[in-house]
Amino acid sequence: MNGFNQFIINFQLYIMGKKKAIMIFKGSTKKHWIRYVTGLDMAVNPADAYGVNQSNMIIKLLATVDSKYLQPGFAYKHLFIDKKPYAYPSFMTLKFVNGQERQYDMNISTFSNIKSEVEYINELVEFERSFAGQDDELDDEV
């Protein structure tokens, strides 16, 4: 925990000489880049070392992500590409709750670029859903 977060957690309010603790709710502000993704399909060429490394990283991330960040019915598919040329790229396809679908070449796109674009799409999806009156905030945690 960095110093700023530690300061926020240990912050106490003094009113009229009396110390009063403040409850800080942090659950509704949590967001994950995979929050509005309903499907993740990866087609990996075993000869593409960068694509294999990225797919392994995503598999580890999916194994450790908290289930409250995943959409109900989240579908994940991972397969190795057979009978393609040696230089054939690895692909990852993301499907979102609003029907949008994005395909990424895992040999060219870095994970940070993919993540930043998915976060931008998540903001658009969240705007659409809040505009339609749907509340997607997570429950508060103390």
Provide a concise account of the structure shown:
With 142 residues, this protein is of the alpha+beta class. It has helices at residues 3-10, 49-64, 111-131; strands spanning 12-15, 18-21, 37-44, 75-80, 91-96, 101-105.
Question: Can you walk through the features of this model?
Answer:
- It is a single chain.
- The chain is elongated and about 50 Å long.
- It has 142 residues and is of the alpha+beta class.
- Strands 4-3-5-6 form a 4-stranded mixed β-sheet, covered by helices on one side.
- The protein has helices at 3-10, 49-64, 111-131, and strands spanning 12-15, 18-21, 37-44, 75-80, 91-96, 101-105.
- Helix content is 32%, strand content 23%.
- The longest helix has 21 residues, at 111-131.
